[in-house]
Amino acid sequence: MIRARYNSLWLWFYSSYFRVLQKIYFRKISVITNDTFPDGQSVLLLQNHFSYYDGYWSMYLCNTIFRRRFHVMMLEEELAKRMFLTRCGVFSVRKNSRDVLESLNYASELLRNPLHAVTIYPSGEIISHHRQNFPFQRGFMRIAANHNDSLIAFAVVLIDHFSMARPEIRIYLENYTGERTAEAVELAYHAFYQSCISKQTE
Fold first, then answer.
1. pTM for the structure as a whole
2. Is 191 exposed, middle or buried (0-12, 13-18, 19+ CB in 10 A)?
C-alpha cells in the first residue's frame, strides 16, 4: 500500500494548476445542496467516478464546503505512475488482494481526525456518469461502520454544455443521515443519483 505524504506546498500547487484548467475548460462550477456539514466531525465522501478531474472536484468540496484536509483513495497501479499525488493526500488500494484491508484501515485511521475528509469512489472504477446504477465495492462500509461519529456525504458530479461551448459542472451534495449498512447506503446513494438527474434535466 502507498500512503499519503501530505505536503501543503504541493497541495497548493495542485489546486492552483487545476483552477487554471477549470477556467480554461469549464464555464462554471456549482455546488447544489440544502445540507450543512458541521465542524468537529470527519467526512467520508462517496462520489461518482467518471473522469480525469474527479479528484479535483473532491478537493474542491474539501476546500470550499467541508473545510477539511483532502484525502482520496486511488487504485495502486494508477497511483504508482503518479507518485507526486501522494503529497496531495492520495493513498492507494489494491483491489482483489489481502492488501485492501490495510488501505481500509488506513482510511479509518485518517477519519479519526475530525479535520480530515476521505473520498471513496464506491464504483471502484471509472464509469460513465450516464450509468446511474452500479454495484458498490463493499469495502467502504468497513470504514463507515468504524466511524459512527463521522459524517457520510454523497456527491454526484454531472456535466452539461447546455447552450454554451464550455460545459458547466454541477456537484449535487447531500449529508446522509440514514442507516449505516451497505445495503441502505447503496440504495440511498442511487436514489440520490436519480434525484440529481431529475434536477439536471428540469
1. 0.92
2. exposed
Query: Under a CB-based contact definition with an 8 Å cutoff, are residues 200 and 135 in contact?
Result: no
3-state DSSP assignment of residue 54: helix
**Contact predicate 154/174, CB 8 Å:** yes
List pLDDT tens digits, range 138-187: 777 777 766 678 999 999 999 998 888 899 999 999 999 999 888 899 99
Instruction: Please give the Cα distance from 25 to 159 (Å, whole number).
Output: 12
C-alpha cell at 157: 458530479
Residue 171's nearest CA partner among 91, 72, 71, 56 is: 56
Provide the sign of the torsion angle of the four alpha carbons 158, 3, 8, 63, taken in this order.
Answer: positive
Q: Which residue, among 116, 111, 107, 191, has the nearest Cα to 148 in the 3D structure?
A: 111
Q: How many CB atoms lie within 10 A of CB 69?
A: 19
